């Protein structure tokens, strides 16, 4: 089986682990990742990424010429794509740019005129209701008519595409898995001491952007009046506009000694910090704009940090925003978004019941290993491809 996957996501080598795993599942599988030759995230000239050709056994990364260097919706590949498709002739074409991307339209059209007879599949994260105007509405309608399979990053995305008229096979799975060789249980006594954290402290962790939609103000409210039977600290990894608000909250409530903010952490060091935590909390909140059912707004698409914590056997607490409850399942605690009292009760459960905390950590680990590693996602994809090809 020849599998072609196109996305700007795979210009980053760290993001290719799922594709490598896919290419190793059977001797007859070949995987090609088509990526832009140059990508300019954020439009800043100093951030231009030049992608190099890579060949690893039956997996290859193929940079091709293209239009648009920083807009995934307008990404279109050049004439060298036609030459490659004529020679390689894939069985599966998966475009990870969304339902209305011109890239997907381009591949569908070339699949037809070159007589490849490949199955067309696309991936999307988009989890907000929307209405399209002409001509984008016609582009999406064309794409959906010629789609053989949908990979949705969350349950809401799958449901929204059904409302848009898609009726074919669907797999709900994230775009990227967790690397269990990096995110694994590993005590960090030296790092704990370096940060001034006592061995007996209960560490409440957060990793992500310091913005209101991530629910940090609700978490701060929950911690303001929390009086557990253990000393605790709040460890935040990340940065964002709420930094000063959080530090001001700590001063106002005389909690400066309980707050620990680490702004700049290299990605390969993030597992060390997660392993300091007794619980990781993702208290995301759907924005008010989305609640009015307009096309703008935000709600949690997945929450990748959850599966990273689960892989480290760290118990997780999440709000019920977006995909969070589906990611956690029965291996963590869920509270209504924005409800500080309910969040405080979840924290108290873990502090008062170490057996529950340990059990949730182990259940989260098993869930991450069975559903969310790159190998697990690769197997889910292969099973999906085989289902589509045989139908």
Automatic annotation (TrEMBL):
Protein keywords: Transferase
Single GO term (MF): glycosyltransferase activity
Pfam families the record matches: Glycos_transf_1 (PF00534)
Coiled coil feature spans: none
Domain Glycosyl transferase family: 189-367
Top-level lineage group: Bacteria
PANTHER family for this protein: SULFOQUINOVOSYL TRANSFERASE SQD2
Stated name of the protein: Glycosyltransferase family 4 protein
